[in-house]
Amino acid sequence: MRQSGSREERVEHKTRHEGRIGLRWAGLAFWMILLLGVDMTSRAVGLKDRETVYLIVAALGSVAVVAIVAFARTANSPPELRTLRFLAVLAPSVFVLSIEVILYFLEIDEAVTEAGEHVFATAILSAGAIPFSLYVFRAFARLRDELAQRAQHLQSLHETSMSVTGEMSPPRLHRRVATGVRDVVSADRTALILRPDRSEREVVETDPPEIEPGPWETGLMGSVRESGEVARATDGDRAFLGVPVRRYGEVVGAMAAIREGGRPFTVEDELLLEMFAVATSAALENVTRLEEAQLVATVEERERIARDLHDDLGQLLGFLTAKIQAAQELVTSGRASQAREELSGLETATRNLGAQVREAILGLRARVGPDRPLCRALEDYVADFGIHAGLSTEFVSVPGAGAGLPGSAQYQLLRIAQEALSNARRHARATHVTVRLTESDGYLELAIQDNGTGFDPASPEPGFGLRTMQERVQTLNGGFEIDSALGSGTLVTVRAPLGGG
């Protein structure tokens, strides 16, 4: 958007405004001095008709001073208000002076009685006051309607901007922006051209989608992208308004609105569209950060799976190899009973290996997103985990719990729940796990409780899984508690602020 003036320009503007105020006060002072001077001079020289001279000078001086006040420009005032101020200041003064002059001459000529003078003055005031009052009321009605229209435009801008900045899917974002331009400035057609990244890929969206921009609109939008300046143009009955879309100060595209039927765009339309371009820039940044966060999350999940494969599956595979070799030696030496024991242990280890592989695959499939909030993702994951792990699971939640959290916070809570469930299966040898998701006092609370063997939380060196959960909770600015004892199961509780920290 256009930058405001520099400090020197603002100081100069303030100086000019103060100068205009000083001119008005000087005019009023001159008027008072003039009246006093005329009166004193007429008395000193003994003018017989000094009343007439005094009246004429007073009238002319008053009109001059009132005209100075009425015509003086006020900074940033619309034409309607300037006209209204001119009439409000000048018209009453002219009426009063006119009545005084007429009554003065009628009194000199004794043309009417004193009562007639009052009737005549009332008639003149009514004749002038009624049309003036009607004009004032109509002017205020027009200003009221204009303010209501501007408020409606700002409300539309706010709602559309919130809708755009909350969209996390790039295709839907581009569609919403094209539709939003149309809503903000009441256009007949809109067009959006974006290159959101440094690749050669370019996004073109229109609304209505079946009407693509013609050569005239495309050329103007190209000039907007190249110059980074607002463009307004007309071609017959078509009016064009285009503004640049910036990201990190660099022009990455242009949005345009087109009206048919000769309806021109105003300065207010230009300002609204520039404000919407800023909201679009923020939405593009949100999408980019979400994509980066998802990439980081994918890398973290791959690293977690790699650690699991290395630590657990690697050990299990080594154990299986040793068991197989031992079973072969026992069979060769004719010790069948001992070979059967080895094979039984081999079967148990194989089942554990299969469970870990299924758990890793299940963890990769689990996700949260705009169409899959935390509550739903956790419910599905807990049910699938129980089936694959052979555990009894229970999920308890209030409807829509956690939906107000940012996507990154929902992702972290899902991974914490996965880690706690994995610990319950692998280390605690639990047979039942309950997962609760509730909201209270501005916090989302996630609790995972199992009936496993438990452990001593005061142990000097917590496991790698607990350290990972604690690190994830720190990114949420939340709280983390573990309640466990040997033989009494484990309760893991996480509290995250619903405002996202």
Describe it for me?
This protein has 501 residues and is α+β, with helices and mostly antiparallel strands. It folds into three domains: 7-158, no CATH class; 170-289, Beta-Lactamase; 369-501, Histidine kinase-like ATPase, C-terminal domain (Heat Shock Protein 90), CATH 3.30.565.10. Helix content is 63%, strand content 15%. The protein has helices spanning 7-45, 50-71, 79-109, 114-165, 170-185, 215-227, 267-332, 336-365, 374-389, 407-426, 464-475; strands spanning 189-194, 203-207, 231-235, 238-247, 250-259, 392-397, 432-440, 443-450, 479-484, 490-497. The strands form two sheets. It has a five-stranded antiparallel β-sheet, with helices on both faces. Strands 6-7-8-10-9 form a five-stranded mixed β-sheet, covered by helices on one side. The longest helix is centred in the middle third of the chain and has 66 residues, at 267-332. The radius of gyration is 41 Å and the shape is elongated. It starts with 6 loop residues before the first helix and ends with a strand.
User: What coarse outline follows from CA principal-axis ratios?
Assistant: elongated
Helix content: 55-70%
Give the amount of beta strand, in percent: 5-15%
Total separate domains? 3
Placed side by side, the strands forming the largest sheet appear as 2-1-5-4-3
> Which blocks of ≥5 consecutive residues have pLDDT under 50?
1-7
Whole-number mean pLDDT? 75
User: How many E strands?
Assistant: 10
Number of helices: 11
Radius of gyration: 41 Å
- Secondary-structure element string: HHHHHEEHEEEHHHEHEEHEE
Q: Tell me the span between the first and last alpha carbons.
A: 31 Å
| Sheet of most strands | 5 strands, antiparallel
Structural class of the helix and strand makeup? Answer: alpha+beta
